[in-house]
Design goal:
Helix content is 38%, strand content 14%. The chain is an alpha/beta fold. It has a seven-stranded parallel beta sheet, with helices on both faces. It is built from seven helices and seven strands, in the order E-H-E-H-E-H-E-H-E-H-E-H-H-E. 44% of the residues are buried. It has a single domain, classed as NAD(P)-binding Rossmann-like Domain (Rossmann fold, 3-Layer(aba) Sandwich).
């Protein structure tokens, strides 16, 4: 079964698109959709086996994919890998990682590690691709962040890093517009992805169980619903959008705790799930 995208199948023909974090979860879904829409995707990450598995999935469906293994937190290592790539037309910064902990339980090393995973790596890849090809040929960048509005208990380190990426997104959009580069961020809310399978902390498990009922739409989002926004922003349809943080969160960032209004349960909420391998 092919990816069931809402976008035109040849939208990214003859385009090279680099994706960090494409070996699992949301990044994997985005890679599949971009390849289905005609793009040649380059999967960049630290774990060769995971990247090659996704590459094989894409190729089995007739898509084009290649892999590059490196630690994107290491700028020198990254530059060595990127220099041998063809010009990159679009970039999706999806790599990241964090662990649940209250601030009182968090060490400075743990905080720093998460900031490096989520903020420094986004800067490193964006700057390297800018120097590699986008400075001369332009392009589009989408940073996958998180819905940090109002704070994130148990996740202060990643909330701080993602807020930093939001500011970085806006600055990149301003400084790089003259080079024909658009830069946006997509902030997902609760997305039903394999990424949540890594959390074994009881507090996180309970939060994940009850979180969808606390948002206006009343359910978790699908990987496809997030990927569709990313692909649109990279497409010609997003040509007048830059420097924005678009929240794909089922309304979770709204004032759902207002004392002036009791939110009603959502009724018959439409679901879009075009990726049949989402939980494979």
């Amino acid at each position: 079964m092919a990816y069931q995208s809402v976008l035109r199948s040849d939208l990214f023909d003859n385009m090279t698109i680099l994706i960090t974090g494409g070996g699992s979860g949301i990044g994997r879904c985005i890679a599949h959709e971009l390849a289905h829409l005609g793009g040649e995707v380059i999967l960049l990450g630290r774990t060769d086996a995971k990247l090659r598995k996704v590459q094989q999935e894409i190729e089995d469906r007739g898509g084009l994919a290649r892999t590059c293994v490196c630690d994107i937190r290491d700028s020198k290592q990254l530059e060595e890998v990127i220099k041998d790539l063809p010009p990159v037309d679009a970039l999706v910064n999806c790599a990241g990682g964090q662990f649940p902990a209250l601030l009182s339980e968090m060490s400075s090393n743990g905080f720093d590690a998460v900031v490096r995973n989520n903020l420094l790596s986004t800067f490193n890849v964006s700057r390297t691709i800018f120097d590699h090809s986008m400075r001369t040929s332009g392009g589009a960048i989408v940073n996958i962040t998180a819905n940090e509005v109002g704070g994130m208990p148990l996740m202060a380190h990643t909330a701080a890093a993602r807020a930093g990426v939001h500011s970085l997104t806006q600055t990149c959009a301003l400084e790089w517009a003259e080079f024909g580069i658009r830069v946006n961020a997509v902030a997902p809310g609760f997305i039903n992805s394999s990424g949540f399978d890594t959390y074994t902390d009881e507090r996180m498990s309970n939060a994940i169980k009850h979180y969808p009922t606390r948002m206006p739409i009343g359910r978790a989002g699908t990987e496809s619903e997030l990927s569709a926004m990313v692909c649109f922003l990279l497409s010609p349809g997003g040509a007048y959008i830059t420097g924005q943080v678009l929240r794909v969160d089922g309304g979770a960032s709204l004032n759902v705790g207002s004392g002036l209004y009791d939110a009603k349960p959502a009724r018959d909420a439409q679901i879009y799930d075009g990726f049949d391998l989402s939980r494979a």
